[in-house]
Amino acid sequence: MLNNKSKNIIFYVTFAVVFFILTLWFSAIPIKNIAHVLPSGGDPLLVTYIWSWEMHQIPINPLELFNANIFAPFKNTLAFSEHMLGSLLLAWPLFLIFKNIVLVFNLVSLGSFAISGLGMYLLANYLTKNKLASLVAAFIYAFAPFKIEHLEHINLSGMWLPYFFLCLERFFESQTWRNVLLLTLFISLVFLNAMQYFLFLPIIIVIFLIKHILCKTFKIAKDNVYKILTSAIILAVIIIPLSIPYLNFKKDFDFQRDLRTIEGLSPDLFDYFINPAIYKFYYYPSAFLQERIVGPGIFVIILLIISIYLIYKKSININKLLVYFLTGFLAVLFSFGYYIQLTTADFGGMIGPWAFFYNYIPGFSGIRAPGRLSIFFLISSCLFIATAVAYLLNNKIKKKYYRYLFIFAAVLFLFIEFSVISFKKYMPIPSKHALVYDWVKEQKDANIYLEMPLGINYLEQDYDKLYEFASINHFKKTVNGYSGYAPKEYEQLNNELTHFDMSDIQPIKDYGATDIIFHFDFYSENFKKTTLEKLSKENSVELIYNIDNDYVFQIK
């Protein structure tokens, strides 16, 4: 006979496998080509590049981790985006097994849904002590529209957040070393996986602390002080070294997100009630509008409203849920951005709490899309729904058969609503790289390569994401780069080189490039012929290598 621990392990593994299989449906990934496709857009290529760079650089010299090879000659360029070290913890072992970074990306992306769902199941079950109700919460959290829309953004999966809440609950229940260290672990994982989510955690911890102090369920005893200090030291050792590059980046580039950008990407109250069935009409005309997808779905909203009414009327677990109500409420206010608006027709509006944090708390001014914090509203909604469903199952639905039927119907409705979202498109990734990169790999580390054509248009034809991904074959310094930020000097060079001619060689040299690689497959045959003729007569450059349709010119 299996003991309870073994049964639980089998259940959790089965749960994760089932949710992984469900993810195959919601992600619409072509399974036969899972090792050779990525979700469309530049971000999956960026993530695979970041992982590859970190797996390359950490064993060599971790102190130089943030001096990535992209956007040369600038330093600290890994800080132009999130470092993705949290997901690297999953990606690196998988890469050692499969040796295919594209397959690894897809496995981690798909696996994040299962990890998220299991975490929410554990959290909801801890609060409700009802497995069936927890299953509903897990399904909502794992496959809500926000999660599906951002499946290519592994850092936005929120896979460690339910575990953070679970450990926070256990910590305030009993300040054992085990609970303290587990809480420390999951705070660290949230930080490593999504810095923008991590910035919201202190607010949540303060809410929990105030609640437990007022309820006299938490005392700052001498023994607790030692444990909390130990946790703080561990977190400081992890957080401070990885935060310094971002603080330097903000200082060096005087970086903060423009309020017009933030407001343009921020949702309003109406966005929380948009049905997934009309996303393609309401959001998809623009890639940026997809940042405003925050609604959990109409059926979830209906369940939430009924749940709040039932919990209030029956006084169900109100003390426990109050912190989640405040968390969800604040998350909604933060998601609006600088101004609280009811609809997109509103101009300006009442200044929200985000404004204070944007101006005075480090880190918040760098967040481009505050709507992403709506994931904390999603967590709160899941727990309210789980609590109400648990009450109905325990007190109103007596027969076991009807309980299962009720849960099946709820999950079926959720499955149908979540399935109406337009499926993700995938792009093929060639299994072989351009042969010119084999030559580049053998050249001097001091060289700085500019690959042409340059980015031209980040939304339509961004070649830089391809060059960046290809650089995992050599990791030599390149002027090109694709990330969450690009220096103004780079944008200016990009504009100057939209229509290349011989007068551009000097600005390229002044920028710091030592070599130019022309990928003539991306140009017309006439442009290739004309450009090669002019370059052959140009004294400032010399053709030093050519293979296939790629030509390398050294700048003298």
Topology:
Elements: H1 4-27, E1 37-39, H2 43-60, H3 85-98, H4 101-128, H5 131-143, H6 145-149, H7 161-173, H8 177-193, H9 195-198, H10 201-214, H11 222-253, H12 259-265, H13 279-282, H14 298-314, H15 318-335, E2 339-340, E3 350-351, H16 353-360, H17 375-395, H18 400-419, E4 426-428, H19 436-441, E5 448-452, H20 463-470, E6 477-478, H21 488-496, H22 505-511, E7 515-519, H23 525-536, E8 541-547, E9 550-555
Parallel strand pairs: 5-6, 5-7
Antiparallel strand pairs: 1-4, 2-3, 7-9, 8-9
Helix pairs in contact: 1-4, 2-20, 3-4, 4-5, 4-7, 4-17, 5-17, 5-18, 7-8, 8-11, 10-15, 14-17, 15-17
InterPro entries: STSV1_Orf64
Pfam families: DUF2079
Keywords: Membrane, Transmembrane, Transmembrane helix
Radius of gyration from the alpha-carbon trace, in angstroms: 26 Å
Low-confidence blocks of residues? none
Q: What form results from the Cα inertia axes?
A: elongated
How are strands sequenced across the largest beta sheet?
Answer: 6-5-7-9-8
Q: Count of DSSP E strands?
A: 9
In round numbers, the mean pLDDT is 93
Number of structural domains: 2
Alpha plus pi helix count: 23
Which structural class best describes the helix and strand composition? alpha/beta
* N- to C-terminal distance: 77 Å
Instruction: Give the biggest beta sheet.
Output: 5 strands, mixed
Helical amount among residues, as a percent range? 55-70%
Strand content: 5-15%
